Amino acid sequence: MRFRLTPRETSFYDMFAASADNIVTGSKLLMELLGADASARAEIAERMRAAEHAGDDATHAIFHQLNSSFITPFDREDIYNLASSLDDIMDFMEEAVDLVVLYNVEELPRGVEQQIEVLARAAELTAEAMPNLRTMDNLTEYWIEVNRLENQADQIHRKLLAMLFNGKYEAIEVLKLKQIVDVLEEAADAFEHVANTVETIAVKES
């Protein structure tokens, strides 16, 4: 790591860690949704909405700190990109849960549980990685594994689309389910964006 003569605002590290921990909460709610019947989904969606609002608050706190700090631990643009990508993950997960409830989906297609399992694992890895931004240690395996998970998510997504268009589902049901699996895929992409930003930061700081 480069030697610095100037002090740095360190509260960003705690805020990134808190944001990532909140994403783990969101991924657990997604997992809970899988095993819930239709009557319980509205309550899960309400808790997911609260988690998404908490994520928004965390993101706004990072932006406020960024705008009020003269010296930052790493490039301002990278801080902004990292905070925005973390926020995107929560937005996509909340949207997926909300769509399941709004569309009154009785049963999610096989394969969605695999999507959510990938997101849950990516959430755990991201939460474990954020505290390491302080030292930039032990991050390489993190972004490599998240990229691998995103590739896995792509494969799962393609298989889900093939199944949705195999003629088993009514056209309106295809539209509903496709939107849900697409949003879950966007969440996987957002995890990769976070990992790529962390890699960029680590390279600059090395």
From TrEMBL:
Top-level taxon of the source organism: Bacteria
Organism in which the protein naturally occurs: Streptomyces gottesmaniae
Name under which the protein is recorded: DUF47 family protein
InterPro entries: PhoU-like_sf, Put_Phosphate_transp_reg, UPF0111_domain
SUPFAM superfamilies: PhoU-like
Upper taxonomic lineage: Bacteria, Bacillati, Actinomycetota, Actinomycetes, Kitasatosporales
Family (UniProt): Belongs to the UPF0111 family.
